[in-house]
Amino acid sequence: MAESKPDAAESKIDRLRARYPWLDHVIRAGVRYTERYGTHYAAAVTYFSVLSLVPLLMIGFAVAGIVLTSQPALLDDLRGAITEAVPGSLGDTLNEVVGQAIDSKGTVGVFGLLGAAYSGIGWITNLRDALTAQWGYPKADLPLVKTAVRDLFALIGLGIALVVSVGITAVGSGFAHLVLRGIGLDGVWWAEALLRAGTIVLGLAANWLVFLWVLAKLPRKPVSWRSAMRGAAVTSVGFELLKQGGSIYLGIIGTSPTGLAFGPLIGVLVFANLLAQFMLFMAAWTATAKENVLRDPPPPPPPAVIRPVVELRKAPTPGATVGLLGAGVLIGALFRRKR
């Protein structure tokens, strides 16, 4: 009886999979994600995601230094705000740090660019390898320099897609506010609610474009746009939910000094890892759709084993040898007489 329980549970799962195609699809995706080391790849992507934050901050400081140098009034306002927010010696120390960052903006910018290039290429390389693995392709031995150049162009393309996505959201939201002001509905609750809903829909569309690029163009093997459309749509919804969860998390930790000190870093780690795992799972989900499932190749034949066989035969006995020689002599004599 105890042995029949797993079989019964397995048959029940099989029946559910046969009854609900979406459940069968999710299970296939989970198996593909596990077999293709999705968690390990997500950890690598998370590492380079967090690693890239430092050089990006350095570039941000350099850009801010260039802007503040050309805008002395803005620099004075920043220093005054720091003094008001952090009075005493700590405020003076922060102002000195700001001054040193502005003075060394060139060096900081150069090191930031170098660090961003290293971490960015590492991030895009691991992401492309992970997406390719979820499509069932083995990792190929590619030339180092050629692969790095292609990954750099892929990173630039992804950056352009992100800029277009953010631009669509920003322009659409700003245009909607202008329209509300123009027709006199600015501040009306139902108009604001419609605007917020439209902003969310526009953000989902922008996210869809980005994830469509990720799922279709970042794998090292060609993937059709049509195959990636549904996966990109689900991924954009999941990404929006993760963002909302991150906003709630930041609101919770903002009430504690300890949370303000360590919460953002922990939040970035968790958010980056969840997003990487979800994105790779959706790549596996897209790859295991019925229209994309590759036919399993036939199993290779077993290895050939060459075994030389040596057969030993007995030599004729002396009596047999004499008999054979005698028969040969008689046959030869008969042929001579006939001639």
UniProtKB/TrEMBL annotation:
<dbReference type="GO" id="GO:0005886">
    <property type="term" value="C:plasma membrane"/>
</dbReference>
<keyword id="KW-1003">Cell membrane</keyword>
<keyword id="KW-0812">Transmembrane</keyword>
<feature type="transmembrane region" description="Helical">
    <location>
        <begin position="260"/>
        <end position="285"/>
    </location>
</feature>
<feature type="transmembrane region" description="Helical">
    <location>
        <begin position="41"/>
        <end position="69"/>
    </location>
</feature>
<keyword id="KW-0472">Membrane</keyword>
<protein>
    <submittedName>
        <fullName>Ribonuclease</fullName>
    </submittedName>
</protein>
<dbReference type="InterPro" id="IPR017039">
    <property type="entry name" value="Virul_fac_BrkB"/>
</dbReference>
<feature type="transmembrane region" description="Helical">
    <location>
        <begin position="193"/>
        <end position="216"/>
    </location>
</feature>
<dbReference type="InterPro" id="IPR005274">
    <property type="entry name" value="IM_pro_YhjD"/>
</dbReference>
<feature type="transmembrane region" description="Helical">
    <location>
        <begin position="317"/>
        <end position="335"/>
    </location>
</feature>
<keyword id="KW-1133">Transmembrane helix</keyword>
<dbReference type="Pfam" id="PF03631">
    <property type="entry name" value="Virul_fac_BrkB"/>
</dbReference>
<feature type="transmembrane region" description="Helical">
    <location>
        <begin position="152"/>
        <end position="173"/>
    </location>
</feature>
